[in-house]
């Protein structure tokens, strides 16, 4: 569905995307993870035919975005990060107008709207104004709008940012159903649990390059351990105490408020810490997550 080889994007002297290779198979959910400024949005814009590549090769549906942009766009659905809905129109008319942009016949658009409102559980809100919808409803309407042309690839930029847990899970369910129906999903997200839930494959980008590629579970197995033991001591003590426990784990991280000890047996690590007459204020053993991988690969420093 999508193939990129040595793909680059520059803005003057700044190179946002530095020669990445990506291959997206039909029917998968493919994720782009990375901190702000990693090159995710620039990559998505090239795939969506709104920003020309500066170098390398890019094919979408086997076509060149530089030559076949309109043909590619007709087969894409795009759900932007912001809900760019028309607040002057009701829910039904937002979908109707958007469907007509694709040149779909009126009868087909009307039938499609009924299907989509049912799919995103907004049938009873068809005549409601956009301003009267909750955040989760607006997001579901935006997803419905992106599906009006029956796209083969659905591009989602931060699909659940700012939503409460209940709304997020409703959207996850809708996206999972789309994938089961054969729609290829391409998404960016800052929620690591969302990436673990939705993505079959993903890449982690940092400073315009791909630093890791694989399945969520595969990346955890490759770049982390099975468990993480978290130790909390008094304020300001963690740096000094790290040297006393670093041999108990494969890797240790010193944070201002806790120590993270990565190992395959977190409980054994905690027992060993206590056996050395060390008394943490609090301890926690948890499974290693995609967030551990992400922070290990891209760092914990904020990037503006």
Description:
Its main location: membrane. The strands form three sheets. Strands 5-6-7-3-8-9 form a six-stranded mixed beta sheet, with helices on both faces. The protein has a four-stranded antiparallel beta sheet with strand order 11-12-10-13, covered by helices on one side. It is globular, with a radius of gyration of 23 Å. By secondary structure, the chain is of the alpha/beta class. Strand 8 (201-206) and strand 9 (209-214) form a beta hairpin. Helices cover 37% and strands 27% of the residues. The protein contains eleven helices and 13 strands.
Short summary of the structure?
Helices cover 37% and strands 27% of the residues.
Features:
304 residues; alpha/beta; Rossmann fold; Alpha-Beta Plaits; 2 domains; six-stranded mixed β-sheet; four-stranded antiparallel β-sheet; 13 strands; globular
- As a percent range, the share of strand residues is 25-35%
H and E string: EEEHEHEHHHEHEHEEHEHEEHEH
Instruction: From the alpha carbons, calculate the radius of gyration and give it in angstroms.
Output: 23 Å
**Class of the largest domain, according to the CATH hierarchy?**
Alpha Beta
Our count of domains comes out at 2
Strand line-up of the largest beta sheet? 5-6-7-3-8-9
CATH-defined topology of the largest domain: Rossmann fold
The poorly predicted ranges are none
What class would the helix/strand composition place it in? alpha/beta
Query: Mean pLDDT, rounded to whole units?
Result: 92
Which CATH architecture of the largest domain is right? Answer: 3-Layer(aba) Sandwich
- The termini sit apart by 33 Å
């Amino acid at each position: 569905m999508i193939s990129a080889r040595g793909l680059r994007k520059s803005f003057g002297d700044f190179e946002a995307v530095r020669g990445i290779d990506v291959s997206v198979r039909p029917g998968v959910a493919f994720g782009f993870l990375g901190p702000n400024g990693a090159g995710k949005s620039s990559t998505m814009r090239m795939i969506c035919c709104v920003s020309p590549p500066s170098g390398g090769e890019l094919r979408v549906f086997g076509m060149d975005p530089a030559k076949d942009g309109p043909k590619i766009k007709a087969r894409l659905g795009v759900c932007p990060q912001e809900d760019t809905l028309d607040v002057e129109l009701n829910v039904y008319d937002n979908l109707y107008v958007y469907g007509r942009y694709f040149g779909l016949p009126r009868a087909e658009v009307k039938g499609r709207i009924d299907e989509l409102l049912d799919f995103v559980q907004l049938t009873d809100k068809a005549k409601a104004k956009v301003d009267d919808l909750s955040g989760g409803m607006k997001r579901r309407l935006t997803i419905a709008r992106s599906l009006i042309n029956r796209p083969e690839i659905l591009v989602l930029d931060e699909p659940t940012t700012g939503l409460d847990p209940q709304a997020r899970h409703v959207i996850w369910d809708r996206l999972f159903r789309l994938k089961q129906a054969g729609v290829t999903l391409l998404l960016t997200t800052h929620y690591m649990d969302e990436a673990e839930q939705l993505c079959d494959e993903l890449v982690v980008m940092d400073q315009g390059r791909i630093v890791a590629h694989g399945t969520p579970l595969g990346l955890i197995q490759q770049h982390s351990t099975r468990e993480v033991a978290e130790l909390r001591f008094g304020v300001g003590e963690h740096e000094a105490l790290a040297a006393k426990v670093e041999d108990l784990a494969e890797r240790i991280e010193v944070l201002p408020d806790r120590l993270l000890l990565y190992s395959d047996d977190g409980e054994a690590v905690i027992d060993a810490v206590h056996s050395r007459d060390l008394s943490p204020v609090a301890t926690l053993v948890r499974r290693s997550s995609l967030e551990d991988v992400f922070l290990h690969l891209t760092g914990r420093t904020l990037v503006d």
